[in-house]
Design brief:
- It contains one helix and no strands.
- The radius of gyration is 35 Å and the shape is rod-shaped.
- By secondary structure, the protein is mostly helical.
Amino acid sequence: MAEQLSDVKEKIDEIKYVILPLSMYLTSICFRSRIEKEKPVLEKLNAENTALTNTMFATKDAQGKAVRDVEQYKAERNAILKRKVSFL
């Protein structure tokens, strides 16, 4: 019984100190390889994201200008209507 317990402890130590680190190392190599393969796709997506972000901010600025213009035209129209009413 003690011998079996000792064997089990040795196997556990082997798993802890040999197999597990080796497994983690191989996994990291696999991930690095996958990252290298997907790097061109990542760069393309980042470029598209940058272009879309720039377009979004340009559209937002144009929309803000359009809203300010409409508010200005409304104010001018109301001023003209007030003058027209005062002439009547």
